[in-house]
């Protein structure tokens, strides 16, 4: 999470942030599960960093955050995506079910 926070702190006028990888209703898994401070999470544990702890101050007023990870949007107001939206003040998009990245590859879409 220190690398994510370093990125957020190092660049001015960030208009878009995209997280791609594993996630759940309550967490985005950024790093190795065996290391501390590796998840953006609403769960309070040694591997979890609350979205309020991240430096969102360099996002522009119209910034967007995209989460490409399964179920990050499910749970409505109790989801990790809503928690990030509340913390960052940005618009957040996230799926409320599973994502099959293989399907994107088969139909020729490019994921950026």
Tell me what you see in this structure.
- The structure is a single chain.
- With 112 residues, the protein is an alpha/beta fold.
- The chain has a 3-stranded parallel β-sheet with strand order 1-5-6, with helices on one face.
- The protein has helices at 2-10, 80-88, 101-106, and strands at 14-20, 27-29, 39-41, 48-49, 59-68, 91-93.
- Strand 5, helix 2 (80-88) and strand 6 (91-93) form a beta-alpha-beta unit.
- The protein is 21% helix and 25% strand.
- The chain is built from 3 helices and 6 strands.
- It has one domain (2-106).
- The chain starts with a helix and ends in a 6-residue tail after the last helix.
What features would you highlight for this structure?
112 residues; alpha/beta; 3-stranded parallel β-sheet; 3-stranded mixed β-sheet; 3 helices; 25% strand; globular; disordered C terminus
Question: What's this model, at a glance?
Answer:
By secondary structure, the protein is of the alpha/beta class.
């Amino acid at each position: 999470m220190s690398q994510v926070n370093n990125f957020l702190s190092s660049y001015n006028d960030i208009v878009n942030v995209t997280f791609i990888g594993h996630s759940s209703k309550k967490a985005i898994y950024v790093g190795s599960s065996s290391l501390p401070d590796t998840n953006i999470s609403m769960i309070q544990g040694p591997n979890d960093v609350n979205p309020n702890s991240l430096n969102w101050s360099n996002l522009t007023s119209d910034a967007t955050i995209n989460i490409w990870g399964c179920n990050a949007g499910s749970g409505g107001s109790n989801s990790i995506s809503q928690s990030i939206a509340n913390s960052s003040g940005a618009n957040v998009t996230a799926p409320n079910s599973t994502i099959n990245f293989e399907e994107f590859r088969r139909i020729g879409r490019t994921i950026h």
